[in-house]
Design goal:
By secondary structure, this protein is mainly alpha-helical. About 65% of the residues lie in helices and about 0% in strands. The chain has one domain: Hypothetical protein af1432, CATH 1.10.3210. The protein binds fe (ii) ion (FE2) (2 copies). The site of one fe (ii) ion (FE2) has 4 residues, from loops.
């Protein structure tokens, strides 16, 4: 496993995770899928690191941390067996792909406007993006999606999250895949991530400097 140390941001993330609503979601996620919970903490820490490196405002750094912690919270509504399978049917894949919209709807109830708009877009900077990939906008989530915020701030935070998410997914063991070697991580990240390259470069720089 790749050793990744984030001095400062781990503590920062632990502090912001103490907010009672966030804590409640995270303990439910831990119960439902421990590896998604652990992945979420690592992603949050990486997002907060990038926010610090790029001098984000304190508010944006907190949003980056919350978005990392909660980006996969919609997986609470996906069967655990499906989350852990290494090979998925078309139906199961489409079920998993609903998690970013489920997360949006769950966080909307808390009134975290920026966080919900970042979360819903965290798979939209991939070569095969969802939920905004054209045809599926006609489904029953349409009204929620139409209210989405598309400001530069949200796009920035969503791209940071997407780069950190892809990076972590490649780097660590999950029930459905092994951790990938360093060269493959770099190749896959560059291939998979289609947002602003500087965020992918920053993620990789941190990775190399922590080796
Ligand atoms: Fe996700
Ligand atoms: Fe994720």
């Amino acid at each position: 496993m790749i050793k990744l140390i984030h001095p400062g941001s781990e503590y920062f993330v632990q502090c912001i995770a103490k907010e009672p609503n966030i804590q409640d979601f995270l303990s439910r996620l831990k119960e439902h899928s421990k590896e998604t919970y652990e992945h979420s903490y690592r992603v949050a820490s990486l997002c907060a690191d990038i926010g610090r490196d790029l001098d984000f405002s304190a508010y944006d750094r907190i949003c980056a941390g919350y978005s990392g912690l909660l980006h996969d919270i919609g997986k609470l509504q996906i069967l655990r067996d499906i989350l852990e399978k290494s090979s998925l049917t078309k139906e199961e894949l489409s079920s998993i792909r609903k998690h970013s919209r489920f997360g949006f709807l769950m966080i909307r109830k808390l009134g975290y406007h920026d966080v919900m708009n970042v979360i819903v877009a965290h798979h939209e900077y991939k070569i095969d993006p969802y939920p905004r990939n054209g045809d599926d906008r006609r489904n029953d989530f349409r009204n929620a999606e139409e209210r989405r915020d598309k400001s530069d701030r949200i796009v920035k935070l969503a791209q940071v999250l997407a780069a950190a998410d892809i990076y972590d997914g490649l780097s660590y063991q999950r029930s459905y895949k092994p951790p990938f070697p360093r060269q493959m991580i770099e190749e896959f990240l560059k291939q998979e991530y289609v947002g602003d390259k500087k965020y992918a470069d920053l993620v990789l720089e941190r990775h190399y400097s922590d080796e």
